Amino acid sequence: MGKPGIKVFAPASVANVAVGFDILGFALESPGDEIIVREGTKPGLIITEIQGAGGKLPYDIMKNTAGYAAYRLLEHLGEADRPLEMEIHKKMPFGSGLGSSAASAAGGVFAVNEYLRTGLSKYDILRFAVEGEQIADGAFHADNVGPSLLGGMLLIRDNDTLDVKKLHIPHGLCAAVIYPHVEVLTRESRGILKKEVSFKDVIKQTGNLGSFVAGMYTSDFDLISRSLQDLLVEPQRAHLIPHFYEMKVLALNAGSLGFSISGAGPSMFALCNNSGIAEAVTEVAEKLFKLKKVPVTTYLSKINHEGAIRF
Ligand code: HSE
To answer: Closest Cα to atom 3, ligand 1: which residue?
Structure first.
């Protein structure tokens, strides 16, 4: 046992949300990662322990999303030599589409920020968290990291400047998340995307995004439901996910507002206007994947408004 430190939780997230590739995401109540930070004995930040990652995550802080995000904050503060130790407890699967590397990045920078009592806000440290996540998939986008750190459903007007806005959440909105146990790496799932899309599809998709946001602010579940369609990315990634379209039909028939891929997949999400429907979606998902002999984990969650917390 090391010296006492502080412990934080950073939740999983659903990115893209059908209508906002790279610019929309929401935080789940669980699962999530836990990170402990305490005073170290040697100059600089070191990762002393990683649990739950099956030996797949690097201890090198320059290669670890939690370590790098925290390091970027320390560098910004002129404290890169500050002796600090970090423990990472992974509580969610990799390559699952639940924002696993992003939760670690958000948790890593948040833990150090809390430990050092820097006075910086979550918004102030968001950039470092996104930089941490960037080492996992090579791209700078806050649609997982943002919700994981800040909570809520986050719309990103511009990823470069991190101009973000938490959306109003209508009462009752919740999600069913279905994770079939196959690994899809974000870097690869991004790599298969076409570099160009048709003007006609962009017009339709802009309509869907704008109307989704309008539906959120007016609690218009019918409008939210009509808007939750992804013409751009879902058709290109669906083949990476076992039984995606069968599951989609079942989720919509169960009464969900909309159904699509969570982040880069293979997880899928259904947004629902009450928890009874979300539960019905998880039940049909469990039956389907049992029948198809694909191991599956399901989650039921409201939108998590808090994001990363100290506990
Ligand atoms: N928007 C990202 C993607 C989320 O779909 O590739 C996963 O990092």
So the answer is: 264
**Strand segments (E) across the chain:** 6-15, 24-39, 45-51, 84-89, 153-158, 163-166, 174-180, 258-261, 268-272, 296-302, 309-310
Of the pLDDT bands very low, low, confident and very high (cuts 50, 70, 90), residue 54 is confident
Distance from residue 263's CA to the centre of ligand 1 (Å): 5
Q: Which CATH class is domain 174-302?
A: alpha beta
Please give the class, per CATH, of domain 5-167+306-310. Answer: alpha beta
Pocket of ligand 1 (CB under 6 A): 15-16, 21-22, 137, 141, 143-144, 186, 189-190, 263-264
189 Cα nearest atom in ligand 1: 6
> What ranges do the domains of the chain cover?
5-167+306-310, 174-302
Task: Indicate if the pLDDT at residue 1 is higher than 80.
Answer: no
Q: Which of 186, 188, 194 to mutate to test the pocket of ligand 1 (most atoms within 8 A of CB)?
A: 186
Buried b (16+ CB within 10 A) or exposed e, 280-300: bbbebbeebbeeeeeebbbbb
